[in-house]
Amino acid sequence: MIDGCARLTHMPSGLEKLTSIQTLPRFIVAENKDCSPDSSKINELDGLNQLRGELHIEKLGNVRNVALESKAGNLKGKGCLRSLTLNWGTSPRAGQDEHDELLMQNLQPHSNLKELHVEGYGGVTFSTWLSSLGNIVKITIKKCNRCQHLPPLQELRHLKFLSLEELMDLEYIDNSSRQPSSSVIFFPSLKVLSLVELPNLKRWWREEAVVESMNNSNRASTSLGEHQEQQPVVLPSFPCLSSLKIHHCFNLTSIPLHPYLEELYLYEVSEELLQQQGVMLLTMMTMRITMMMMMMAALQSPRESSTSLSLLPHDSFTASPLSKLKSLQLVRIDDLESLPEAWLPNLTSLEHVKIEECPKLSSLPRQGFKALTSLRNLRIYRCEGLKSLSNGIQHLTALEELRIRSCEELDLSDDGMQLQDLKKLHYLELSDIPKLVFLPIWIQDTPSLQELQVEECKNLVALPEWIDSLTLLQRLKISYCPRLTSLPDRIRNLAALQQLCICNCPHLSRRCQKARGADWPKIAHIAMIKINGKWVQRLT
């Protein structure tokens, strides 16, 4: 085993003699200055065809004689390898693209390979052998700054995980000018797709292909008579994709349909991409109408329609787009002014929502939240333009946790919210809300509340006397609220309260000193009390 050898610069010569070796997790290509008669070149891998498990080939940027060294490495003959990492190890050098492309071509692995990780490659295009890895399950391509597009991957029937990271010049994932044939299932097994730091990525295919498909889709929904004479129009759709992460791809405006997601994470993307969710709903509805028309035509002409019907997804009539989505995260979407109510009604399985650093978001939906009957966790962080939560929150009857942080314009004092239906809410956090002077009265309508945190609310002046209506409250944390001077008398009625933490509230801290403070009699019954990071009471 070669593990933890961070300063290893090259491999010893003579490796080609170990023809029965099965484990060689790392192979490091030496720099010219490190080369010596005792260092191996990549061609010494030629006869090591019993290798299995993982093989990391590092510092490929040091290969100079591509034709002599890399082709003789014979990776294609190593059918027992499960995972292969090709790491160039240095930033691409000017004029090296053709060199790297030839090197990549010569490093073609066996088709049995399950996992491929490529990092630091300096070519403009990838070798076509990437499309021929018929058993590949996971592909990660990272820091290949000159790469502009990839070969078609949609027919890799075992591919489950695809991650593209820090490909600065990538404009199109697939450079082909035509959409894939409707006779082939698009990415039949892909479950996880991650697109991270792709600042120049515009779309999946070139524009001509997208325009052609949209025009075909529009024509498909005209009339029954016209449709019977057309071929089925089925736009590419990920049939198994459950997790989609798009991070820092602010020029990306569209991707293939993804109706069966369970997790959606959008970070620093355009609002166009967010609005595509609504377009997707309309597109799927159009496709459903198209399919229903085909079914009707099939009843009239079974022989002519049987082939077309066999190409349609089996769940086309039962699955609603995004109805399986469980987690939604929207982060740093600068142009987002409101959550699109057009696609919220479909999110009936949604359990977790996080909205962070969306400065133009001013309010939450009033009607769209009615469909979110499964939502358990809602987090809103650093949305500086948010002014109101609106009454939409009251429809979240399954809500268990609500966290609101750093929303400087948010006014909770007179928003008229009525939350008596939030019978499951057990955790509430209000943090860094400058306009919070008094706790909103709707908190007393949450009978299951067990934990309340109020932090960095510099203008909060008092806790309400109705706090004793929170009969199940077990933990109360108050920190960085300098204007809070005392606790309400009725806090002594909270029999279930087990833990009280007060931190950096100067006036309140003094009043809650054990046995000496004016407010100590109100809280002496609480088993665990921490003041400014120190436990002053821990009853067993």
Automatic annotation (TrEMBL):
It comes from the Eukaryota. It holds the Pfam family LRR_R13L1-DRL21. The keyword Repeat applies. Keywords: Repeat. Residues 323-501 form the Disease resistance R13L4/SHOC-2-like LRR domain. Residues 42-166 form the R13L1/DRL21-like LRR repeat region domain. The keyword Repeat applies. This is NB-ARC domain-containing protein. It comes from Hevea brasiliensis (Para rubber tree).
